[in-house]
Amino acid sequence: MQGMFYNWGPTGDFADVGNVIDDDTTGGNAGTYEEVAESDVNFGVTWGEDGTEHTGSGDVLGAASIFFLRRR
Hints:
Helix content is 0%, strand content 11%. It has strands at 25-26, 29-30, 46-47, 54-55.
């Protein structure tokens, strides 16, 4: 048994695939996280690395928005 080498794959602290963008890999596995488009996030809302990488440009009152008013 002496001198035998067993390779059980990469070792270390790897990010979960759900936390890795879908065009990258972690520990040899494809990431599954998909970034949201800036236009799909409300104007002025920030997200991404350190919470400041991206800023939303979406229009809260855009044509696709529907609001219902309720009487009391």
